[in-house]
Amino acid sequence: MTRTVGSFSEFSYPNNPLFNYDGAIYTVINDKNLLGSGRAGSVYKAVPDDPSRPSLAVKVVTERRGYDPCLGMCNEAGWNQRIHGIGFSSKKSLSLLMPLVIGENLHDFILNQSTVSDRTVMHYWILLALSVENLHKTHNAVHGDVKMANAMRCVNPGGSETIKLIDFQYTASVGMPAPLAGILPSCCREGGMAPELSDGSITATRAQDYYRLGSTLLCLLKRMSHVSQEVKTSVTKITNGLCWHNVQNRWCIPHAVYELECALTIIPRYPASATFCTLLDSHIDVLAGEMYAATQETIKLKTEKQTALREIQKALLDPRDLRTITQKVASVRKTYPKVTAGFFFLRTKTLLDELLRCEKSSTTRALQ
Prior knowledge:
Strand content: 15-25%
Largest sheet: 8 strands, antiparallel
Number of helices: 11
Oligomer: single chain
CATH topology of the largest domain: Transferase(Phosphotransferase), domain 1
Mean pLDDT: 77
CATH architecture of the largest domain: Orthogonal Bundle
Number of strands: 13
Radius of gyration: 24 Å
Number of domains: 3
Helix content: 40-55%
CATH class of the largest domain: Mainly Alpha
Structural class: alpha+beta
């Protein structure tokens, strides 16, 4: 768990709020530094008096009838503190000091960029799903309000993109009371939130984020116009898998990501080994994601499958291994006969058969 460094106090409000954090004075100039606003409040850039210190963000919470803003504000401050090391709330000004995330939320980015392809949109959903999975694994937490507006598209110095989750006012540890339970029944009925949240006694589960991811993917599907009907059918299957009303039947995130990658990936006629290794990685991630809910017997089988898939990867990428691809795959299948059993029966068999077919095509081409 990340530990908070420094102290926090607020000593001037409401004209130009001043915050003392870790020995630096942070000023919020509302008109100039407004970063965004929504139903829950407005976020401003907080500028330090010491130029060597990083800027932060201040969220001023909006008071709403029938809802205590301090509850969500304090919860969000606590989770920002736990995840990022900076999170302080002030009941006096209904404000929250937190890290500044440089980027653009996915909702606005996709809406404002008419040239964003359907494939790119699906790529961003995958990055969002993996960010949620990381929150689940790293902090054993349920975000509670997963949506495109709460995902920031950030560009790293090297040019690569990452997705960072924001807005933790409804976040809770797995097994603890869900902050949204019983608060937004109308939203649940509309399909935005998991239906079980209409029960005020429900606890937070990862499956609630799965449902929300499925709802988000469904919204994106309606936007897609240039993909094949086959891909749309696959995406619909994924949204249905994530949005099962029966919590036990909902797909885990690695399963959904794997299915979407398979739907979007076009395997070249003469693929590089790395192409198949990437797909095998997805298989392995699905297995890992299903481990927590498996029996001991099933865990043993899934572990054996993971080992088999890694053996195939190792053989494909090892330049010292002079066996043909056919020999490599046959060897692993002999050692691990259940590698294509269960969930992986069709997908893995198809993938390995395609690998062998491409080797045969490449050999034939070389002899011509």
